[in-house]
Amino acid sequence: MAEKARAALVPTQGIPVLILKEGSTRTAGQEALRNNMMAAITVAEMLRTTYGPRGMDKMLVDTIGDITITNDGATILDKMDVQHPAAKMLVQIAKGQDEEVGDGTKTSVIFAGELLKAAEALLEKNVHPVVIVNGYKRALEEAVRFANEKLAEDVSIEDLETLKKIAATALTSKAVHGVRDHFAEIAVKAVLQVVEERGGRKYVDIDNIQIIKKHGGSLFDTKLVYGIILDKEVVHPGMPKRVEKARIALLDAPLEIEKTEIDAEIRISDPEQMRRFLEEKENILRSFVDKIVGVGANVVVCQKGIDDVAQHFLAKKGILAVRRVKRSDMEKLERATGGRIVSNIEDLTENDLGYAELVEERKVGEDKMVFVEGTKNPKAVSILIRGGLERVVDEAERVFRDALSVVADVVKVPKVVYGAGAFEIEVAKHLKDYANKVGGKESLAIEAYAKALEGLVATLIENAGLDPIEKLSELRKAHSQEDGKYYGINVYSGTVEDSRKMGVIEPLAVKVNALKAGTEAATMILRIDDIIAATKAKEEKEKKEEKKSSEE
């Protein structure tokens, strides 16, 4: 195959014509397709064991020895450092799923793997890849239509119990299973607090929910703060550590004398001049503080530095000050307190001040933090995660992002479906009937699509240590009954039960997006029949050096 990459024989002359750069390789036809499919299926198989509430965890060790223990799909794929180009496509699909809906990354990747496995059987029967791709696309369109029209149920964002179940479902397969009800409640409260109306539609920006991690304590000590936590301490020991009914000045300007950008020389011939020079610096800093006091502020949060002299004046006036706060935290404070970030102290007015019931420095673990609580109508909140082990706290953060995302998805698109395999089995059942109506070779691809959906449920069952053949047949039987669309597998008891009673509810947006992402990845790989790989820069450099040394 490699020879084909570099030369094509001209029949009349027999002279090789070089087309690609020396060292380039080409794999074509069935071999290229199978290589790509095998790489993608291998990635899906690696994630397979982490799927579902009984899924296992992965330990990932990076080049510098840092350890990550998780079963979060997006994190595993991100840390794996995949090299094969087809496998990289799956990683990108998973990232897209994570950015779009925040959950369902494992579902999309494992589903793509199942679709490719099903396609393999069709390719052996000489079904052309284009026919399979068209069949898969048609099956996807029908699955999405069926899910929207027949399976999805409307949910109100006032229905807190349902929202908690949705959050708890996202938390089920994680290391924090024991505290999932506590975490689910926090996630729902946090999301509902930052909901906004935009053009008649509800919108949630997860970035307005600040997550602060501090190991020590228990996961049950994790709490929601209606305000912002600053991972900073009060700058001067003479300042108050607690201010009630705080009027907060948000400054994006330094409270210090900045050095000029040009070199300047000051000639002083008299000690009095030196004293006046130093006094002038003090007077400027005092005027800054007087301005802050004049507008009625009793708390200063500064993005830049605060001079020691300014700290002294602020402390004398009983003002609590925090410096070098991150821009993102400043923006969250602005949203939470109703204040406005001011870039020039001279422009500061009373209307620019934010308000909070309490600003207090507290010790959390080994560090001191400033809590800004009881803000007017906080459109930014904070979650303080505690846990006995640093890696548990890291996993808890990943968990929260999933739980917050699914609640936000339901707020944006208030439709849900039932999980535990109920959704996949019902869609697969409908697609099998649909395939009979379509007929022709495409019907084989639609049936393969249905089989791939059942493969997701089989994975769920296998990871619970149950027999997939037996349980799948029980599920199919349950779904053939009236109202059978709600039946899924209880992975703890090993029985087929009504998902409504189990409380396994998932956002429609997550399921539909996972189907779209998985189908897109599989069809993209099936359409590739030629791989032309250029020589690596390092290898090329070595060859040049060898050639040069041999010439010398």
What is the CATH architecture term of the largest domain?
Orthogonal Bundle
Strand content: 15-25%
Q: CA-to-CA gap between the ends?
A: 33 Å
Question: CATH superfamily assignment of the largest domain?
Answer: GroEL-like equatorial domain
DSSP, total strands: 23
Compute the number of helices.
18
How many discrete structural domains? 4
CATH fold title of the largest domain = GROEL, domain 1
Q: Note the main sheet.
A: 7 strands, mixed
Question: In terms of structural class, how would the helical and strand content be classed?
Answer: alpha+beta
The helix content is: 40-55%
Can you tell me about this structure?
The strands form 8 sheets. Strands 11, 12, 13, 14, 15, 16 and 17 form a 7-stranded mixed β-sheet that branches. The longest helix is centred in the middle third of the chain and has 24 residues, at 271-294. This protein has 552 residues and is of the alpha+beta class. It starts with a helix and ends with a helix.
What's the helix and strand layout?
Layout: H1 2-6, E1 7-9, E2 16-18, E3 25-28, H2 29-48, E4 58-61, E5 67-70, H3 73-80, H4 85-101, H5 105-124, H6 129-151, E6 153-154, H7 160-171, H8 180-193, E7 196-198, E8 201-203, E9 209-215, E10 223-225, E11 227-230, E12 242-251, H9 271-294, E13 299-302, H10 308-316, E14 320-322, H11 327-337, E15 341-342, E16 354-364, E17 367-375, E18 381-387, H12 390-412, E19 415-418, H13 422-438, H14 440-463, H15 468-479, E20 487-490, E21 495-498, H16 499-502, E22 505-507, H17 508-526, E23 530-533, H18 537-551
Parallel strand pairs: 9-18, 12-13, 12-15, 13-14
Antiparallel strand pairs: 1-2, 3-23, 4-5, 6-19, 7-8, 10-18, 11-17, 12-16, 16-17, 19-22, 20-21
Helix pairs in contact: 2-4, 2-5, 3-4, 4-5, 4-17, 5-14, 5-17, 6-13, 6-14, 6-17, 7-8, 7-12, 8-12, 9-10, 13-14, 14-15
